[in-house]
Design a protein that fits this description.
The structure is a homodimer. The relative contact order of chain A is 0.09. Chain A has an 8-stranded parallel β-sheet. In chain A, strands 11-12-13-14-15 form a 5-stranded mixed β-sheet, with helices on both faces. Chain A has 2 domains: 244 residues, TIM Barrel, CATH 3.20.20.20; 97 residues, Sulfite Reductase Hemoprotein, domain 1 (2-Layer Sandwich). The first copy, chain A, is of the alpha/beta class. Chain A is 43% helix and 21% strand. In chain A, helix 3 runs parallel beside helix 4 and helix 4 crosses helix 6. At the A-B interface, helix 7, helix 8, helix 9, strand 11 and helix 10 of A face helix 7, helix 8, helix 9, strand 11 and helix 10 of B.
């Protein structure tokens, strides 16, 4: 069923809106200058929503200035203390992430919902397998399972909805990928409440990216999930980059240059890995979705290079340059190939911008 | 429908056998010493099948010694010249990867099938969007589509099967993730011939891993795919590592230590990224599937650390150590936490080995 449509600050979420990309700062939230610098940096990388940890009063007091300066909606992440949630709402955050199970009982959770309603803010009910309430844990034999994640979220949503509050999204996260997938599918079948999806504690950048891509790829291509966060033990800019790559791979949204390049094999001519890495770096700031091929041989090279917006295929000591599906130049020395490619992409960007 | 069961050297493939992990060397195949060193290195990383490019006679002549010394089945990757395929079979390779469309016409493709039948070898019909025959390309309006990949493979399989040869697997690869997914699904619905699945020219290590994880994650969890290769513009050991992470995330097979760690946030205490990276490095040679948690705070930390085989959760300046679901030590100085974790995992490995 289609999810209900929410407003998160200036952004539309759920109800068929594009799946949005979010991340979380890892600065001290009370340190406004550093936090703002990181917010700007992740927004440049493509973040559309930014969440901040608000563990204490100092952090809550910094929110007003952060909200004023930030170019995207901010979400305050709050545990244990409902008064921090109310304070964050007064500072103008677009949303809260709370775990009603640890915010101090139903009465306090309801107070937070009333304050959020008055502030036109969204509340995410975030259930994590690692932080389920003790009451839920007693249901386990050994490990949390999808049904327990779903039941925990339903119980917590009920508390908020009893106040008439409807601007709710949920997340049901497990570090087990297929457990997260099962929980999110189950939720989508039961409720119209939009989902924030992600694999919690997904591990370091390389392996966390794979776990997130498997889980979110499955869900997104089934139409499940309204906003995503890729959780990595890595800088938040990297989380945003991976999130966009997942959206692109799933065929949902594209942003920036996609470099298609060969796996290296015994047929590869030239320093392919270095050239692919180099061109990716040179074109990192391009936001227009373009496809660039860097191919190492004559078997698959010309075909892929022609299918891309621009591309090169390496021969021995020189290579061919393709643009717009046509061979533009052949026998180009290696050292000139990347510049040709870079100029072409910037030209395409210009054309598109005008 | 279940796929037909094949023998690839000592390995079973298709018909319900575990999904196997393969990669491709990027050394010069004629250079036996270097190629063998790379084969041993990728096998240590978890490769169960290794493919080699055989572009010329020199490479084909090296195969006999490589086959004798390699600890896993080898596959010769051959384009354009059917005599190289016959020579590779005579050297004892367990399989060939050919593209019947460029091997020199149906008569020669049939000769290769007959030689493979006599040698008990498997042939993979490998269709790539980048290397479709010109005849197929004329079908396109602009880009190759899944139906064309499937039709091309069906036509090529037919040529081989006309000789009575049945030990066939296919691959239908596009650099567009969802196009590859669509082609593989379509194939699985039409044929019992096992599939080698992968996203071709998947890009550099970080972004290629994401594309492969999205595509292979979807297919594997639907039961499509009998053997996988992750193609990256990166060392083949990295391809193998990512392949295993995809299999683990999809809930199919596990190998080695999985490090569960937090995304960093404002709540994180201590040098979490460094500690997670360090423990992953120290435990890289463990092959037993074990789960290790490295958590940065007291919200999700203790829960995840208890669910893991062993784990740590950081407080300010010190942390807690968990093993087998129990808190073993608290207020442990940072500098001792990783050694405790490392010793515990090696102890678990020992116990399991005995």
């Amino acid at each position: 069923m289609p999810t209900r449509s929410l407003r998160l600050g200036s952004l539309r979420l759920g109800g068929g809106a594009p799946v949005s990309v979010q991340t979380m700062t890892n600065t001290d939230t009370y340190d406004v200058a550093n936090t703002l610098a990181q917010i700007r940096s992740v927004v440049k990388a493509g973040a559309e929503i930014v969440r901040l940890a608000v563990p204490d009063n100092r952090a809550a007091e910094a929110l007003r200035e952060l909200v004023q300066e930030a170019p995207v909606p901010l979400i305050a992440d709050i545990h244990f203390d409902w008064r921090l949630a109310v304070k964050a709402l007064a500072s103008g955050v677009a949303g809260l992430r709370i775990n009603p199970g640890n915010i101090g009982g139903p009465t306090r959770a309801r107070k937070v919902a009333e304050a959020a309603g008055a502030a036109n803010a969204v509340i995410r009910v975030g259930v994590n397998s690692g932080s389920l309430g003790k009451k839920n844990l007693s249901h386990f034999l050994s490990h949390p399972n999808p049904q327990i994640l779903v039941e925990s979220a339903l119980a917590q949503v009920k508390i908020l909805e009893e106040t008439g509050f409807r601007a709710i999204k949920v997340s049901l996260k497990s570090s087990q990928v297929m457990e997260t997938v099962a929980a999110a599918r189950r939720w989508a079948a039961l409720s119209d409440i939009p989902q924030h999806i992600g694999i919690t504690e997904a591990g370091n950048a390389a392996s966390g990216a794979v776990k997130s891509a498997v889980g979110l790829g499955i869900l997104l291509t089934e139409g499940v999930g309204d906003t995503i966060r890729v959780s990595l033990t890595a800088p938040p800019e990297e989380e945003v980059r991976v999130a966009w790559e997942i959206l692109r791979a799933a065929g949902l949204r594209a942003r920036g240059v996609e470099v298609i390049s060969c796996p290296t094999c015994g047929r590869t001519k030239g320093p392919l890995i270095q050239m692919a890495t180099e061109i990716k770096k040179r074109l990192a700031d391009v936001t227009q979705p373009l496809k660039v091929a860097v191919m190492g041989c004559i078997v698959n090279g010309p075909g892929e290079a022609r299918n891309a917006d621009a591309g090169i295929a390496l021969g021995q000591g020189h290579g061919s340059f393709f643009a717009g599906g046509r061979l533009v130049a052949s026998r180009v020395p290696y050292e000139n190939l990347l510049s040709l490619l870079e100029e072409e992409v910037h030209k395409m960007e210009q054309t598109h911008a005008n």
